[in-house]
From TrEMBL:
PANTHER family hit by this protein: PHAGOSOME ASSEMBLY FACTOR 1, UPF0183 PROTEIN
Family as reported in the entry's similarity comment: Belongs to the PHAF1 family.
Source organism: Tieghemostelium lacteum (Slime mold)
The name this protein goes by in its record: UPF0183 family protein
Source organism, top-level taxon: Eukaryota
Length: 441
């Protein structure tokens, strides 16, 4: 059975919408497994950020191109139009036994500027905003379109070329599709041993946050999962009475939150990068986090927390409050530069005389962190992480076996209040945040 899809220039093909996450796209494919029976995922194992992540629907003639850092859909390509039934504004313009021609496209989508001709491939491209069509031109007619502005409406032999490929993208030009797409996840500022700050929601969660606090700020989780530690039961005093802690899984945010079963407060935060070279790929949307150096983590978090409290009390929106917070931050940086101690002894000192925050005085109330300060983000390699956090000791090796993890072992490196899971290609797979009670000042 052929897929029947509606085409919207600059927007979508059926349920595949430009700007959607790769996780959302794969979920659509799973939900339509009766119609879509084969999908290939293509990426660079050693450097997954060097090229687009590609989903190829082999039997449906569709290629989905995802920008590797944001993991958002930026180009939809139809490479075999005969395998689809396509409509525009509710009217079918191409199907298996009646593939659209140049005349059909011109009549359906209207006039356009002359396209461009690829002489080496004998391909003529006709462009509309957010939409391009490719037509195969017989080589004997190449000379007619090499330097001409004529449209190949009708070839000298009386035929009109058929559509060979279709491209849907955001922007005016197929060669330069927009990579900054809507629906980006918000940045999350991670402060080891303290908590996390959601920049768009303008809220914080700490290790004292209850399940109700989390539900109030983030909404209901995608799933509630009770931690299974059966192999640890041997260490419990009573067989069968072992009660597990439990997770709130927020797959759409790329976050897991572990709660203590006794206190029902946060025990750990786990953030996922969703690289295709990890065994948990596609369970989570990529989490956009920022982790700053340990020497400023506590003060940064306190300043954010204090300012949010002031704003909630009606005292945080004035220019004087913003200026006061800025002075506090500058004071922290000065104390750091004069010999303030770091949380992790091996960590390099934080740069001096730099502001950690730029406060936007607006109704949106957003923090803009100083980009000149070094921070850890999901696309940073492990060697660069160590430049910020210092050298780590030997890692704990996680080997699930080739059957469940074809990409090989991952390695866990620990610092005070934070653990990094690193893959063989030197990229971060996940970050675990916990409260290190041994390292409190």
């Amino acid at each position: 059975m052929k897929l029947k899809l509606e085409l919207l220039p600059s927007k979508s093909l059926g349920d595949f919408i430009l700007g959607m996450s790769i996780s959302d796209a794969l979920n659509i494919i799973k939900q339509n497994n009766v119609l879509i029976d084969s999908a290939q995922i293509i990426f660079n194992d050693n450097d997954p950020l060097s090229i687009d992540i590609v989903i190829r629907l082999v039997n449906d003639g569709i290629i989905l191109l995802f920008e590797p850092k944001s993991q958002r859909l930026r180009v939809i390509e139809i490479f075999d139009i005969k395998k689809l039934t396509l409509s525009y504004r509710g009217v079918v313009f191409s199907k298996e036994m009646q593939v659209a021609t140049f005349v059909d496209i011109y009549n359906k989508f209207g006039p356009s500027y002359p396209g461009d001709f690829n002489d080496s491939k004998s391909i003529y491209h006709l462009h509309y905003p957010g939409l391009s069509f490719s037509f195969k031109i017989p080589k004997e007619f190449n000379s007619l379109y090499q330097e001409s502005t004529e449209l190949p409406v009708e070839l000298p032999d009386g035929t009109t070329p058929m559509v060979e490929k279709i491209f849907i993208y955001s922007g005016q030009q197929m060669k330069n599709p927009l990579t900054i797409l809507p629906n980006q996840n918000e940045d999350i500022i991670i402060c080891p041993n303290n908590g996390i700050y959601f920049t768009k929601r303008n809220c914080i969660l700490t290790f004292y946050s209850s399940t109700q606090d989390v539900l109030s700020e983030l909404g209901p989780p995608s799933k509630i999962y009770h931690k299974e530690d059966d192999n640890m039961k041997i260490h419990t005093s009573t067989e069968g009475s072992f009660v597990q802690d439990y997770f709130y899984n927020y797959f759409h945010l790329g976050i897991d939150i572990l709660f203590d079963i006794k206190t029902n407060t946060v025990k750990k935060f786990i953030f996922h990068t969703n690289f295709p070279t990890h065994y948990e790929f596609n369970l989570y949307t990529k989490c956009s986090f920022k982790i700053y150096g340990p020497s400023t983590s506590t003060q940064l978090f306190n300043n954010i927390k204090n300012f949010i409290n002031r704003k909630s009390n009606g005292n945080g929106g004035s220019g004087s409050s913003i200026g006061e917070l800025q002075q506090q931050i500058e004071g922290v940086n000065q104390s750091n530069s004069s010999g303030g101690s770091a949380i992790v002894s091996k960590s390099p000192p934080n740069p001096s005389s730099m502001n950690m925050l730029e406060i936007t005085n607006s109704s949106n109330f957003e923090f803009n962190l100083d980009q000149s300060l070094p921070f850890i983000h999901p696309d940073l390699k492990w060697d660069d992480v160590q430049k910020i956090y210092g050298k780590s000791g030997k890692p704990v090796v996680n080997n699930r076996g080739s059957s469940s993890n074809p990409f090989g072992s991952t390695y866990f490196y620990g610092y005070s209040g934070i653990i990094f899971e690193v893959m063989k290609n030197n990229y971060i797979a996940s970050v675990c945040l916990f409260k290190d009670y041994k390292d409190q000042h």
